[in-house]
């Protein structure tokens, strides 16, 4: 199993960057985002644009996904008379969803008891 860890990255200098906000594209389909904040001891704004495209690998393929069905405390998958099946990326897939990715959702009615 591949370890899931965070890495530290030094942007411009040795000062601590205080982050006040993070901006993403609506719909979250981009590997780019913007951080804004300031370095410790200064009152000047800092804007950092980050592109994670190379770090995320290649576009995902069908075998990078698996079905996921929400369940209740008793592991019942029929919630309010329906079973909803979502497609989600497997935890260790080193890929990204492209701009045209449309997450499929399937609904199935549960048998009546």
TrEMBL record:
GO terms for biological process: post-Golgi vesicle-mediated transport. InterPro entries: Sortilin_C (IPR031777), VPS10-sortilin (IPR050310). One of its GO terms (cellular component) is membrane. The keyword Nuclease does not apply. Keywords: Receptor. Residues 24-111 form the Sortilin C-terminal domain. Gene3D superfamilies: 2.10.70.80. This is Sortilin- receptor.
């Amino acid at each position: 199993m591949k370890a899931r860890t965070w890495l530290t990255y030094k942007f411009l200098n040795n000062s601590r960057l205080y982050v006040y906000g993070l901006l993403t594209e609506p719909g979250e389909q981009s590997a780019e985002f913007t951080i804004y904040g300031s370095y410790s001891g200064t009152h000047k704004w800092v804007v950092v644009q980050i592109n994670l495209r190379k770090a995320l690998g290649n576009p995902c393929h069908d075998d990078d996904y698996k079905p996921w069905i929400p369940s209740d405390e008793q592991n019942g998958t029929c919630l309010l008379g329906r079973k909803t099946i979502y497609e989600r990326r497997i935890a260790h897939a080193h890929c990204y969803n492209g701009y045209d990715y449309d997450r499929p959702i399937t609904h199935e009615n549960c048998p009546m008891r």
